[in-house]
Amino acid sequence: MIRRDELESAVLDGLQHELMDPALCEIFAEEYTRHMKRLQIERNASVEICRAELVKVRRDIERIVDAIVGGVPGGQLLTS
C-alpha cells in the first residue's frame, strides 16, 4: 500500500520533471497535430465516398422515375 499523499506527490513530481519537459511537450504537440491531420484526411475521404454514393443513388432514382413515367412495368425495373 502507498499513502495517498505519497502517490499524489510522486505523480505530480513525474508530471513536472518528465512530462513537462519542453522537448517532450514539443514532440507531443507534433504527434497530436499529425494525428489530427490524419483523422481529418480520413473524415474527408469518407465524406467524399458518401457524396459519390449519393450522386449514384440520385441518378438511379431519376432513372427509375423516368422508366415509370415512360411506362416500363414495375417487374422490369427490378431486373434492369
Plain-language structure description:
The protein has one domain (4-79). It has 3 helices and no strands. It has helices at residues 4-19, 22-69, 74-79. The longest helix is centred in the middle third of the chain and has 48 residues, at 22-69. It is rod-shaped, with a radius of gyration of 29 Å. The chain starts with a helix and ends with a helix. The mean pLDDT is 88.
What structural category characterises the helix and strand content? mainly alpha
Number of helices: 3
Task: State the share of residues found in helices, binned by percent.
Answer: over 70%
Give the SSE order as H and E letters: HHH
Sum up the overall morphology in one term.
rod-shaped
Overall number of strands: 0
Core attributes:
single chain, 80 residues, mainly alpha, 0% strand
SSE order and pairing:
Blueprint (H helix, E strand, L loop, with lengths): L3 H16 L2 H48 L4 H6 L1
Summarize the structure.
This protein has 80 residues and is mostly helical.
